Amino acid sequence: MTHIHVLLKKEEIEPDKLKGEAVIVLDVLLATSTIALALSYGAKAVIPVLNDIDAHRLSAQYHPDEFVLVGEKEGRVIDGFLPPNPSLLKSYVKDKIVILATTNGTVALNRSIGAEIIYPACLRNGEAVTRDVVSHLKPGQKIIIVCSGSSNQFCLEDFYGAGYLISCLRDQLRGPFTINDAGLAAEVLFHSNAGAYDLLIQSAVGEFILSHGFEEDVREVVELGVDHVVPIYQNKQITKKGAVRSGTNKA
Amino acid sequence: MTHIHVLLKKEEIEPDKLKGEAVIVLDVLLATSTIALALSYGAKAVIPVLNDIDAHRLSAQYHPDEFVLVGEKEGRVIDGFLPPNPSLLKSYVKDKIVILATTNGTVALNRSIGAEIIYPACLRNGEAVTRDVVSHLKPGQKIIIVCSGSSNQFCLEDFYGAGYLISCLRDQLRGPFTINDAGLAAEVLFHSNAGAYDLLIQSAVGEFILSHGFEEDVREVVELGVDHVVPIYQNKQITKKGAVRSGTNKA
Question: Cofactor(s) for this protein (chains A, B) (predicted)?
Fold first, then answer.
């Protein structure tokens, strides 16, 4: 029997418990939405790092033309980095490696290393990601949905995202499955009459983003299931799953 | 401006942050529901303790006729104690002091000591409790709703309870107020079409209680707002707020 388990913030991750499991990481505002959109804008890969220091250290391995530094710390754009807002990235990331440092999402992804497979997901690609998870699920493997949260706080937008993913999983899983209490609650929230945009702008992070004039970004990230690209985090970088890599036709 | 802040489990309580604030503690299945029902069955007081050892130590202060020991540890009734299920307590608690040890709710209450005022609340008395909270609220005082959770896990039933309390507070608060993300999500859940009973029996603890044949208890605890008694936790014991105490007509 498959078990779907929702963690409400990255601080709840116990790396040992992810071993062998399929993990989906959500940071709807904005890291995992930024990742999805950067890949769809043509970024070669996104490398999620813990902070600006790791970003600079890593960037030394690349020619200056190959990468862009993108990131925030506690909501403020890091000096010398591009902001992680999708609307501002569109023109910068094509054919580049995006080195991305954020307070929550990229940290959650790094804490998930050790899982069998890791998907960064968001509202835009939730359907595509869950279809891929289910089609590759091994017997007995758990599906662990990690809400990144915000600095050890529960985030409404990630919880809504978890509800959306569970709703997709319910459609796609063939056999019986169980869901923990957090997942059950998230799914009820998702199926309530509250619209995604109206909910997300009430959240603490949503309010913050709106107060800085980035309504366009929120409108973009609430589009459910419009993105068919499946991002996968392996070998320390996030790429489009199944995309043709240099020098080979194999995924 | 009043701030309503929901904590999702007792492990999130930071005692220093409760100073001066009004705290409402929820352990819907079952501790705070048990407390409400024990008081309505005529218990003199309920004394919440951390565990069986503290319960025995405390009981030494009383004559054997004065008290009953009630409690569970990780869902199992403690040897020599009465089970905390309301349906089983009805005939034992009248005019007694109930010394109550549970895994979550009574621990959450004890962790909340230091707050300005502490109310154990549940679905049955949520309306009465929130009315009392609002009528005694001081300028700038926060309302902190503590979901006890279950052994460091999020609990659906307490989250639903938090949503119910916020819905009541929204009706009763006159001035402007803010709600944290957890509270916003809980309120949306409460206003969804999912009925309380149907939701609660899907929760991990609800399933456990039902599997032990205590459907009657779940049916009793989901009755919203039927109980007008306000329990208050002060001087280490929970009594009916405003009840006539021995030797005086004053509250």
Answer: Mg(2+)
Q: For B3-40, b where at least 16 C-beta lie within 10 A, e where not — what string?
A: ebbbbbbbebbeeeebeebbbbbbbbbbbbbbbbbbbb
Name the residue type at position A82: L
What's the rounded Cα separation, in Å, for the pair B160 and B147?
Answer: 9
pLDDT tens-place string over residues A197-206: 999 999 999 9
Distance in angstroms (rounded) separating the CA atoms of residues A206 and A203: 5
What's the CATH number of domain A2-240, 3.40.50.1460, 3.40.50.1980, 3.90.1560.10, 3.40.50.450? 3.90.1560.10
Q: Which tens digit of pLDDT belongs to each residue from B233-246?
A: 999 999 999 754 44
**Nearest by CB: A188 against B153, B180, B189:** B189
- ipTM attached to this prediction: 0.93
Judged by CB atoms closer than 8 Å, whether chains meet at A156 and B185 is answered as: yes
> A36: distance to nearest CA of chain B, Å?
24
Q: What gap in Å lies between CA A159 and CA A157, rounded to an integer? A: 5
Q: Are B49 and B103 in contact (CB under 8 A)?
A: no
- The minimum CA-CA distance between B180 and chain A, rounded to whole Å, is 7
Reading the block at residue A7, the tokens are 């963690």
User: Domain B2-238 carries which CATH code?
Assistant: 3.90.1560.10
The answer to whether A184 and B156 are in contact (CB under 8 A) is: yes
